[in-house]
Amino acid sequence: MDTSLTIDIHDATKRFGDVTALSQLNMVAKTGAITVLLGPNGAGKTTAIRMITGSLAPDEGTSRVFGIDPAGPDGEEVRRRCGVVTAKPSLYDRLSGWDNLRYAAELYGLGKGSAADARIFEAASLFAIEPALDQKVGGYSTGMKTRLALARAILHEPDLLLLDEPTSGLDPESALAVLDLIRDMTSDGQTVLMCTHLLLEAEGLADEIVVMQAGTSLKAGAPAELIASYWPVEQVRITSTMPEGLDLLKRHDRVLAFERTDDSAIVDIDDQSAIPALVADLASRKVPISSVVPVGRSLEDLYFAIRREHGSVEGELAPPGGSSGRPVRLDVAA
Amino acid sequence: MNWSRTLTVVRTDLKQLIQAKDFWMPMAALGMLFFVIVPTILLTMISTVGAVGPLEQIASTLEVLPENTQSQIQGDSPQGRTGYALAVFLFAPVAVVVPLTISTAVGAATIVGERERGTGEFLANSPAGVKEIYIGKLIASLIPGYFTTVVGFTLYSLVVNLTVGPEVGGWFFPTAQWWVMILWVLPPFLAICLSLVLRLSARVKSTAAAQQASGLISLPLIMIAYGQATGSLLGAGWVPLLLGAIAWAVALISLNRGVKSVTRARLLGV
Does position A334 have pLDDT exceeding 80, yes or no? Predict the structure, then answer.
């Protein structure tokens, strides 16, 4: 058993009648890392999570979590070590928040004593939901329900946290708190697998990403490595009040490619160390420079580049500086 | 099989049921109607009107009952014999409908309800085994029905003994046949009914569909219970004991097979 991998899904296929939800899916999640599943609606992210908990068994292929088949006879061990937040909070509206957490505590083997009660309070406090624990969940707002579901998922201190859109319905402060908590969990050695539609949210969080489409993984790996594989050269945007003067750079020996717009030029270079030489060259020729900005590739650029590569979305490879800093929802049909 | 988790499922389901006033208040009203209100009004009227024509006609129709049943009817006066017959052979069997209705209504909603509310996913992802979930939900459905039986027939006993008792020489209900019915025959019938209803609940798409289909399942069982209670189907003596034993055997087989109907995929609704 490879202990460096908490999840190892190999060639897994899952069908529901005529619909193939997963098609020879291959994916891994490294122990202690945050792996983010990205993909449009219907890509199979939720089915993948259900397969990881053993709620669904693959029709073909294998699924191993902690080295165990979660749909097999030892699946209870897997489920006991997993904390799950589903896309809908899955809470009992007629019960109080406290009763919902107590139910989970008992099912997950925390028992009923004062130690369990203390742990329930501690988990609820992490998401600032403890003042509402005595209220019936039916009266909670969407954000409160999500926070309670998160508290329930971490109640038993799981080794693997499975989060399906964990910040859905949360206000920005709560969403930020959740993302911070996710980071903290991995620093404690726990493994996180998260599905999200928000690329910006995944941007600073993901150690690894898996881009899914139509039940299969298109690409997987560390975002920085994937970005480097798609854009092996660096880009810099140079802006000038005399943009035609920038054309001098076309013939510069450190410039690999050049493209000028009305007020600036996008220059491909082999390394950022070339930037001072370019600036010095322009200055020596009296070309005024307003700004020099390295063009970073975002997860959004990477995501759409991968999707374009597989013909899922139309258009050229990601535009320079495509990351606009706004949350991007992945609603592109598969 | 982890009994602690099973009991947790039972406790939580019952807690939710207690909170569901929109469910149990109509059921309580139904119970009051069958166990208290209708028997009190009719039996009081029979005891107070005296030997009038219509009552004597009812008394004479008792002659169509099986001989074995007729011999059990106590009382010397027409109102006494009529009150006794109605209390033991008419109202009491009808009241069996109430626990069956309550248990099947609870059972029908139990699994499909988890799915409809989205909470099935929580259970499916939890360490609880499907057998623990099934048994837990079965017990949680049985308890309201049996609780109603005990409370309802306690009230019913008070009503009929206070209204008809003076006419037939004292307290007479429950009769020996009724003790057999309540303690030996009814529980396995409830269990059979619920094992079938839970299977339905795991398979159908909505609570409404489960409740409609569960009506079809419980109807023949109500008829058997009614027939046995009146003594017109199998009579008294050792036959109810045998019927109960057979029902227990069928119930155990049915319950065992019912476990397979609950799967994690069905809790998810996929």
Answer: no
Express each pLDDT in B50-69 by its tens digit: 656 666 676 666 666 667 66
CB-side neighbour CA atoms (13 Å) of A304: 21
- Is B263 touching A (CB cutoff 8 A)? no
Report how far residue A257's alpha carbon sits from residue A277's, in angstroms, rounded to the nearest whole number.
16
Q: Which residues contact B170 (CB under 8 A, 6 or more apart)?
A: none
Q: Does A243 touch chain B (CB under 8 A)?
A: no
Single out the residue of A88, A94, A164, A98 nearest to residue A129, CA to CA.
Answer: A98
Residue, of B219 and A261, whose pLDDT is higher: A261
Polymer length in residues for chain A: 334
Query: By the CB < 8 Å criterion, does B264 face chain A?
Result: yes
Contact A81, A158 (CB under 8 A): yes
Question: Which residues of chain A does B129 touch, with a Cβ-Cβ cutoff of 8 Å?
Answer: 76
Question: What single letter denotes the amino acid at residue A313?
Answer: V
pTM: 0.83
A159 to chain B, closest Cα gap in Å: 14
Domain covering A5-221, topology: Rossmann fold (3.40.50)
What distance in Å separates the CA atoms of residue A318 and residue A305, rounded to the nearest whole number?
6
Contacts of A159 in chain B (CB under 8 A): none
**DSSP label of B62:** G
What count of residues does chain B have? 270
Segment B206-214 mean pLDDT: 81
For A293, phi then psi, to 5°, come to -125, 120
Residue of A nearest to B6 (CA): A107
Q: Which overall architecture, per CATH, does domain A232-295 show?
A: 2-Layer Sandwich (3.30)
- CA B54 – CA B39 distance, rounded (Å): 18
Using CA coordinates, name the residue in chain A closest to B21.
Answer: A94
Nearest CA in chain A to B5: A107
Band the pLDDT of A325: cuts 50, 70, 90.
very low
- Do A56 and B122 count as a contact with CB atoms less than 8 A apart? no
Q: Is B21 on the interface with A (CB under 8 A)?
A: no
| Region label for A163, one of left (φ > 0), alpha (ψ between -120 and 50) or beta (otherwise) | beta
- List chain A residues with CB under 8 Å of B116: none
Which of A103, A145, A193 should be substituted to probe chain B, the one whose Cβ sees the most B Cβ atoms within 10 Å? A103
Q: Chain A residue closest to B11 (CA)? A: A103
The three-state secondary structure class of B265 is helix
* Domain spans, chain A: 5-221, 232-295
CB A148 within 8 A of CB A97: yes
Amino acid (one-letter) located at B84: Y
Q: Do B127 and A106 touch (CB under 8 A)?
A: no
Query: If 0-12 CB within 10 Å is exposed, 13-18 middle and 19+ buried, where does residue A219 land?
Result: buried
